[in-house]
Every structure is written in structure tokens, then in C-alpha cells.
Amino acid sequence: xxxxxxxxxxxxxxxxxxxxxxxxxGDLLKLVxxxxxxxxxxxxxxxxxxxxxxxxxxxxxxxxxxxISADQIKNALGSDTIKDLAAKFNxxxxxxxxxxxDLLPQLIxxxxxxxxxxxxxxxxxxxxxxxxxxxxx
Length: 137
Prior knowledge:
With 137 residues, the protein is an all-alpha fold. The protein has one domain (3-135): YidB-like (Arc Repressor Mutant, subunit A, Orthogonal Bundle), CATH 1.10.10.690. It contains 8 helices and no strands. It has helices at residues 3-11, 24-33, 39-49, 53-60, 70-77, 79-88, 93-111, 120-135. Helix 2 crosses helix 7 (93-111), helix 3 (39-49) runs antiparallel to helix 4 (53-60) and helix 4 packs across helix 7 (93-111).
């Protein structure tokens, strides 16, 4: 199953690949697009502040994506975010972190295909386009 198929299944409520729960991608898209937290730029800043900027940079660039561990995701996003997602999807915190560690690099990579961070308006349009393309509406 390719990443776009995985995205489609997760947005449409079908079980995802590698144990990632259905619906988690929608929450991840909201996080990347949330103007209150600064959207993708805010997420990049969080990673930089936690010493994980090199990982985020690899996902944005056109080169190979560096892996991130469940612990690093928890450190970058914060315990509260992980706890909320774990509770929402009836997962343990480690499983929620692991799912995010699998999905986030791929999502950031797909949202930055030319190796640069799009303006927030362009990012929002890209996310809307992904949803429409995968859900057909």
C-alpha cells in the first residue's frame, strides 16, 4: 500500500497501514494547518527548539527523510498532544507517538514537494486539495 493509499484510507475512516488508526491523519493535517499554533512554520519552530530541526529539514528537502522515534515525536509535540491523541484513538501513548513518527515525515515530505515551506495560504490549499483528491469531494 502506497502512502497516498494510506492517506486515503486514514481520511476516509478505514484502518491505516502499520497500525496507524483511521482518522489520525485528519488530526495531523489540522496540526500542520492550525493558525493558532503557527501552522507548519510553528511546527518547524517547535522541532528547532527541541533540537530536532535537522529531522524536519530532511522531510522538507528533496532528499531522503530521516527517521524520527516515538520519544522524539513526544518531545517535539509535547506530552499533552500525545495524551490527547492516544485517548481519542484508544491507544497507548507510545503507540500514538509511533503512529505519528511514521506519518509526520511522509506528510511533511508530500506538503513540501519542491523542498521549501509553502506560504500558509498555499499550504491550506494543498491540504484541501489532498483531502479532495483522496476523498473525491
